Structures are given as C-alpha cells and as structure tokens.
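Sanity check

After download, print the first record. It should look like this:
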Amino acid sequence: MSASVADIAADLPLLPSKNRPLLLAAVMMVSMCQFFDATIANVALPHMRAALGASPESISWVLTSFIITTAIATPITGWLSDRIGSRELFIGSTVLFLASSAACGAATSLSAMVLFRAIQGVAAAFIGPLTQIIMFDISPPSKQAATMSGFGMLVMVAPISGPFIGAFLTDTLNWRWIYYVNLPIGIPALVLLWWLLPSRPIERRRLDRFGFATLALALAALQLLLDRGQHNDWWESGETWIEALVMACAAWMFFVHTRTTSRPLFSPRLVSAPNFLVGCGSMAVLGISNVALSAILPTMYQTVFNFPVVYSGLLMAPRGFGVIAMTIVTNRLMRTIDHRFLISIGYLTVSGSVWIMTTWAMDMDWHRIVLASFVQGMGLGLVFTPMNMLAFGSLPPDLRPDGASVLGLFRSIGGSIGISVIVTQLANNQQVSHAELAAHVTPMTDLAGATGGMLPAEAALPMLDGMIAKQAAMIAYLDDFKAIAVGMMVVALLPFLLKKPRRGEFDGVPHPAHGD
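Expected structure tokens:
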C-alpha cells in the first residue's frame, strides 16, 4: 500500500498547470515558429535581395545576424529565467519574436531587415531552451519521455520543413509571408500562454558579466568565421585569421575565468554531470547530421536531379515522417531497452542510410531518395529522446535552465560547424572532380559527336562543360555522403560513455524514489 502511495506522490509535475495538453500545444506552436525561422529565409534570399536593393554578399547578413545574436543570447537564458521568472521570460520573448517578425516582413531596407532579424534572433535564443524547460517542468515523470519525444519531433522536423515552407510561401504569396506566417500561429499561442503558463520560483542570482562577455565574443567570432569562411576562401583571408584569434583568446579567457571565479555563468555542477557532458557532444553531432544534411540536400535535388523547388521540399518530407514514426516507437522501446543501445542503433541507422545515398546515380528515380530519407529519419528519431532523457532528464530541477541553454547552444554550434565543413568539402571536391573530368577533354575529342551531331564543335563546348560540372557535383555530393556515413559510424560508440540508467529511471512510468 505504501509503495502505491509513493508511486502516486512521485508522479507529480514540478509546475502544475490548469490544462497541460493545451499549454503544451501553445508552447510547441511558439517553438515551431522559432525553429522554422532558422532555415525558412534561405530560399527567399534572391527575392529579398531584389526588393531591398542589396548585393549578393550583403544579403547574407539577413541570415548571419540571426545566427550570431541567437548564439550570443542563448547562454544567459538560465540566468534570465531565474532572475525574472520563466513565465515572464517566455511570454516576453514570444511578444518580441512576433513583433520582430512583423517588422521583418514590413522592412524596406537591408539595414532595417538586418536589425529586425538580429532582434528576432535574441528572442529565438530564449524560446528554444525555455520550451524544453517548460515541457519538462509541467509534465509528471510518467509523461516526460513522451513530452520530450514531441519536442524531439519539433527539433528534427522543423529544419527539414523550413526551406520547403519558405519556397512555397515565396512562390504562392510573397517573400514577406515567410515572416508574417508567424503571426496567425503565434498570437493565439500567446493568449493561451498568458492564461495557462505557470512560472518557476524567482532566484536573484548575480550575472557573471565578464564570463558572459568573453563567451559571447567567442561565439560571435566563431559564427562569423563559419558563416563567412567559404566566401573569404578560409585561411587565405586575413579576416578568417582575425576571427579565429579572437575566438581562441575569448574562449581561453572564459574557461580560465570560469574555473577561478566563485560565481561562474554556468553552475559548476553541470561539469560534474558526465551524462550531461556526453549529451552536449551528442547534441552537437546531432546538429551536424540533421541540420547540415538539410542544408545541402535541397540544393542537390535542384542542381543535380533538376527537380523544381517545391518537389525538392517534398523529397525532404520522408525524413520528417521517419522521425515522427520512430519517435513514437522509441517511447515504448525505452521502457525495456537500455537507452544507450537505442542511441547507438540510431546513429548506425543514420550511417547506413547515408551510405545508401552513396549509391545514388543521376539517372535514378525518386523512389531511392524516399527510401534513404525515411530510414535516415528513423535513425534520428531513435537518437533524440533517449539522449535528451539521459542528458537533460538526469539534471536536478534547479539546473534545468542552465542545462537547456547549454544543450541548445551545442546543438546550434554543431549545426553551424556541420554546414560549414560539409559545404566547404563539397566545393573543394567539386573543383577537384571537375578538373579531373575536364582533363579527359583533349583536342582530339569529338565535341560535335558528344552532342549527337546536333551542334557544331564551338557550340558543343559550353554544353559539354555543363555536363562535366554536373557530374563533378554528383561526385562531390557522394564524397560528402561517404564522410558523413563513416563519421556517424564512429559516433555510434559515443553513447557507451554515458552512465547506465538505474532500473526504472526514465522508463516512462511512475516509480518510487530511488532508495525507498
């Protein structure tokens, strides 16, 4: 009888709410807008450049400003949540995000657009970690695994869907609707948040200003280096060296200061949590495998396979369906299978699906793309929830704000590094492959015969160069896929550095407190 009472007592949320399902829906609606805006603007840049009168180089600041301010603001999410309350911070961030979205849609100059995107990035920096905190806090232990699964679907599917939604809105309405679309989703959610959202207790802890300043400087320099490196030809540019030097110096100062100060920016107890540290590394890898692939695949579908923009977006959908299907299954598997095995199997599944992509050919149909994408989504769905439960769920409630902000920061940095490395390798491999293929074109080559005699030799040369360029691009993509597949196979060993969960821990059912 006492065991049953203990079970019931243990299955209570940290923050009770009047209507948990409705509140979860509102929180996820806001978070969905935030995750979409990280990638939704990519496809609309050419239209924005024409409307704002910007150059091809300067228009990239629409993306860069959002990325940098998000990275800078994310580390203080925990401090602000404790300082003013999680309710006030989340609602305030939502209002700021919606207002800046409307301002971005109405912008008439590049400077105004960059400013409003920077403000939007600050609001998005707080919304992401707070979503995870709120969803965990308002859910009883028996519901936390399922709740994190819903959050995982959002994190995995939103970057995949963003480019497609952006392309659809741009083609059917106007590029400004990639920002206006947040309003009909976010305003009803804001009303529900005002009515239902509870708040964590306020703790007037002091901000480590020097630690925040050095970390913000390091993150800003890193994001600038990654975002502009390819354009600046990497280490051939003095700007890249300056950004790398600033990043290294600021990061060193932050780590030394954190080890010596009595009140660092993040609680020292985070460092003493091995599952959390390994989880941070795994989140960075997850960012690489999910966000980076989402960035290059639509371009491949359009340039190599000649699919229209909308079709390219639809071909990304099977990954999302795979994530959703396997996340639902994972909730049940977590009750009987060691979380670490699930994570490892997930990474191996991602590796296998990417290896399938190395067999793609230019003359194949869309069925093989759908198969590989769906299997890849299944692998990603196996990873996120058990990893999040082992890393974030093992933290005591008072460390969740700092823990969520750090996990979100690592996921964001991993995605930025992944995009930068993969795109750079893609460009380099394409140049090498083009040179190797072009070397086979000699003065003895029958150029007219290469086009079936339809064009004279002089006109056939540009067409032949285009064919070589497309073949070189295909080879470069396949080389990238091989590198990613091998990397994911190696990462599959990472979960076994995690501490094995105790019996009954994170199993998705209520249980007595350990030691009872």
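If your output differs, re-run the checksum step. Summary of this record's structure: The CA atoms of residues 123 and 200 lie 19 Å apart.
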